[in-house]
Amino acid sequence: MKLEKLSKGKFIKTSIIVLVVISIFGVIFINRSKAKYRVTQSIQVVSGEVNYTNPDFSMLGVKLQSAKGSSDYVSASNNEVPEKGYKLKPLGTGATDSYCTINGAKNNTGISISYANGSVTFSGIKEQGTRCYLFFDIRTDLLGEYTVNSTDDGCPAYEETPSITNIEKSKSLFCKGKDDFGDTYYFRGNPTNNWVKIGNFYWRIIRFNGNGSIRLIYSGSGSAQTNGTGTQLSSTSGYNFLSNNTDYVKYMYGSTDSIIKGVLDSWYNANLKSTYGSKMDGSVGFCNDADMTSSTDFRPSTRLGVSKRPMFKCETPTTNLFTTKGSAKGNQKLTNPIGLITVDEACFAGGLEGTPNSGYYLYTNSTYWTMSPDTYEGGSAIRESTVTEGGHLGSTLVNVAKGVRPVINLRSDTLFKDGGDGSSTNPYEVII
């Protein structure tokens, strides 16, 4: 084949074309290379997601806290990041802290991680050869599973004694208030995600107390119950023996137990104490509020019946807040950390005096006791507040048999099994 020499003009023209093509490809190559470093990318890790910004990043592994205890961790299959039920341990140097390595050496400098909704996000990764190992603890703060509603959504005002003049029967609200220990978060209306299972017993979360503990009300044995006497203990009880003395509205008077306290103590000793006693918080207490504002009315009656301003705080905690021995607050008179709901809590939940409400979660179509005294009319007419079969807040003579629904407080560090969503069919389940 004969090679033809290019003319000078053709040579220059061809050279220019080649240079332009090379320049275009060069720009494209450079931009693509730089883009890999400046655009956040994500990689799916089984049921979770890890977001990262470096092209040479990988997961060394994931370990999850097991149900056996706080120091026991198991490797997750395929480096799975859990969708929920766990919390990510921060980067550190401890034996069970999450950590990163750069070219094989532990180095967390400048790197931060966060975890939400099944996604782990890394930031500050600048070095190639970065590898990270994540440790997840079982969640103990169920509070983080809920979104707090505002007054615009229908919650009462965030104050010590908000005005509540209406029932709530349809909305599912999670509201913020104030109690003896700080901010408390409570359910109002008709929530379906506040179920907890302890052994064979089902409970509804009333609220998260200001010290982080979780206040629960009994709602069935063997299965979740929402209606009838299945939400109560097997037998009804009077609150006390007689109704002719103001002392008989008290959970204890002097060293004497009320009838209702004896019933609750007996049930607690038989069903919770040996296996779950260590999970209970006795320091947050139960407010009996047995002081009078007049010759006929106790404080709860004045707050709820007259001014309609309930409160979570116990007005005279040194005498009326029943706590266990060694507690920082209260009277320290309890042996067992068990009590009843207050009429104020029932009002915050959606109930109101004299107004029926079959729509909120405390309605059971059966009357049961609260721990709040109501009125004294002299002679033999002393009354304790109740949640009635119609769902409104009422009162009954203390020596009349009514339903008993125990209330307990779980410690803030209580562990729950993974996978629960708070529904009646898949409740949050306490780990022994």
How would you describe this structure to a colleague?
The chain has 2 domains: 44-138, no CATH class; 143-429, no CATH class. Helices cover 16% and strands 28% of the residues. It has helices spanning 8-38, 259-271, 273-276, 299-307, 317-320, 343-349; strands spanning 41-45, 48-52, 57-65, 73-75, 86-88, 99-102, 105-106, 112-116, 119-123, 130-138, 172-179, 182-189, 195-198, 201-208, 214-221, 252-253, 256-257, 286-287, 321-322, 368-376, 382-387, 393-397, 407-410, 428-429. The strands form 6 sheets. Strands 11, 12, 13, 14, 15, 23 and 24 form a 7-stranded mixed beta sheet that branches. Strands 3, 4, 5, 6, 7 and 10 form a 6-stranded mixed beta sheet that branches. The model is unreliable at 1-8 and 24-44 (pLDDT under 50).
Distance between the termini: 89 Å
Number of helices: 6
Described by strand count, sense and barrel closure, the largest sheet is: 7 strands, mixed
Strand content: 25-35%
- List how many beta strands DSSP finds: 24
**How much helix is in the residues?**
10-25%
Residue runs with pLDDT of under 50 for 5 or more positions: 1-8, 24-44
Mean pLDDT: 87
What would you call the shape?
Answer: elongated
